[in-house]
Design brief:
Layout (H helix, E strand, L loop, with lengths): L8 H21 L6 H14 L3 E5 L2 H11 L7 E5 L5 H8 L3 E5 L21 E7 L8 H10 L3 E5 L7 E2 L2 E2 L6 E5 L13 E5 L2 H10 L21 H11 L2 H22 L12 E2 L5 E4 L3 H10 L29 H9 E4 L7 H12 L2
Parallel strand pairs: 2-3, 2-4, 4-5, 5-8
Antiparallel strand pairs: 1-9, 6-7, 6-10, 8-9, 11-12
Helix pairs in contact: 1-7, 2-7, 3-4, 3-6, 8-11
Bound molecules: pyridoxal-5'-phosphate.
Length: 366
């Protein structure tokens, strides 16, 4: 048997008839840039997340970058962010001209360690940019309290957490702004790049509207030097169809995760399984486990047709591109340990019970 870490083919088979009409409508309308579906999807997705506004952009990275600018963050500012995440999180901060200041990871949820957050604050700190990693929400209450106390903006990186809940509220509805990616493999993915910034602040929404579309007010009237970062109409039309399935797909991911966890627990293997805090509804963008003998295990699994990946092998503070910040090994021991032990197993809504059982069996025999 072959079990890939990810496939979009099954999802496409399931919805291809639903997609035909909306895609054809875009083709016939000719409104490829900022066409009707963009505004409708912005509204529908903001509503889904429980906020007032959505502004579609080119990618999740652009969402982070432009959200920083829209929050008034720039040169000379510091933004607190986890070291253990995908590189795009901190690149967004860097693109805005600010300096990322890293904080270690909490070992169970893999999100930013809120007990270490306050120590990272300096006079230059302007914001906290946190990540709901793998689909598990960060601990928002203490984060919002610290932000309020120090008058910091809060930006949520929700690129892996479309539909995840913190205390029964959608992630993305807590911060001043939240950033989503619609990269094809995300829980809500387009057929190409795409992203969105959501917010309930009219001020941030207005700034985002300028920033992502050449800084223009009228057709040829430019108030600021903006950027060209828009969500394609075609992608918006596709995402509108997919959004209707998101809850059901997330539930299937949760069911798959539960089965993995049950089988691994029964097998009593020496490994650390994903954890779900009592305040959290995890949507399992990734199902990650931690093991001691990762390299050997991954190779053996590959031999048996099971593809796995490492999210992420290098913490951001040790990435070459950030060497000018002067961080060194041992600065964030939890993040570094996770990078050595973590591995992601096949996870998507359409994964079958038989496939999950097969994956767990291979763990038992290696
Ligand atoms: C995917 C991802 C991004 C970047 O999104 P793109 O659309 O690929 O630019 C940012 N942050 C996290 C945590 C991600 O997983």
């Amino acid at each position: 048997m072959k079990v890939d870490i990810f496939t979009l083919k099954r999802q496409y088979e399931e919805i291809k008839d639903e997609l035909k009409g909306p895609i054809e409508n875009v083709m016939l309308s000719g409104g490829f840039i900022l066409g009707e579906d963009v505004g409708l999807f912005e509204k529908e997705f903001a509503e889904y997340c429980g906020v007032k506004y959505g502004i579609g952009v080119n990618s999740g990275t652009d969402a982070l970058f432009l959200a920083c600018l829209a929050c008034g963050i720039g040169q000379g500012d510091e933004v607190i962010t986890p070291s253990y995440t995908y590189i795009a999180t901190s690149l967004g901060i860097s693109m805005a001209g600010a300096r990322p200041v890293f904080v270690d990871t909490e070992e169970k949820t893999y999100c930013i360690d809120v007990t270490k957050l306050e120590k990272a604050i300096t006079k230059k700190t302007r914001a906290i940019l946190l990540v709901h990693l793998y689909g598990h929400p960060a601990d928002m209450d203490p984060i919002m309290q610290i932000a309020k106390k120090h008058k910091l903006k809060v930006i949520e990186d929700c690129a892996q957490a479309h539909g995840a809940l913190y205390k029964n509220k959608k992630v993305g509805s807590f911060g001043d702004a939240a950033c989503f990616s619609f990269y094809p493999t995300k829980n809500l993915g387009a057929f190409g790049d795409g992203g969105m910034v959501i917010t309930s602040s009219e001020e941030i929404k207005d700034r985002m509207s300028l920033l992502h579309d050449y800084g223009r007010k009228g057709r040829y009237e430019h108030i600021i030097k903006g950027y060209n970062s828009r969500l394609d109409t075609l992608q918006a039309a596709i995402l509108r169809v997919k959004l209707k399935h998101l809850n059901e797909w997330n539930e299937k991911r949760r069911k798959n995760a539960d089965l993995y966890t049950k089988l691994f627990k029964e097998a009593k293997l020496d490994m650390i399984l994903p954890y779900e805090e009592s305040y959290a509804k995890h949507i399992y963008h990734q199902y990650t486990v931690r093991v001691k003998n990762r390299a050997v295990l991954m190779e053996k699994l590959a031999d048996k047709g099971v593809r796995t990946l490492i999210h992420y092998p290098i913490p951001i503070h040790l990435q070459e591109c950030y060497k000018e910040l002067g961080y060194k090994k041992r600065d964030f021991p939890v993040a570094e340990k996770c990078c050595e032990e973590i591995m992601s197993l096949p996870m998507y809504p359409e994964l079958t019970e038989q496939e999950i059982r097969y994956v767990v069996e291979q763990f038992k025999t290696t």
